[in-house]
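Support request from a user on the community tier.

User writes: "When I paste my structure tokens into the form, the page sometimes reloads and wipes my input. The last time it worked, I copied everything first. Here is what I submitted, just in case something in the input itself triggers the reload:"
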């Protein structure tokens, strides 16, 4: 991962993508994403609706992807 990409995050819209063990994809669009640590490991915080399927898949897998919308 290019760690300098975190320094370029600004206010905008992001696609949060998730996949579970059975290769089912899901995701949502969020506007609340921020870098909260530049230490090891780098950390970001993302906020999405709790009643959405995406947070459950993130908790299940422990990982997600972020794509910036232009």
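"...and here is what came back when it finally went through:"
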């Amino acid at each position: 991962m290019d760690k300098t990409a975190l320094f370029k995050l600004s206010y905008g819209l992001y696609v949060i993508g998730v996949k579970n063990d059975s290769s089912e994809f899901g995701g949502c669009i969020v506007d609340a994403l921020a870098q909260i640590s530049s230490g090891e490991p780098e950390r970001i915080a993302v906020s999405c609706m709790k009643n959405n399927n995406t947070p459950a898949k993130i908790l299940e897998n422990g990982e997600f992807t972020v794509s910036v919308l232009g």
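Agent notes: The reload is a front-end session timeout and is unrelated to the input. Helices lie at 53-61. Residues 36 and 44 are 5 Å apart (CA to CA). Escalated to web team.
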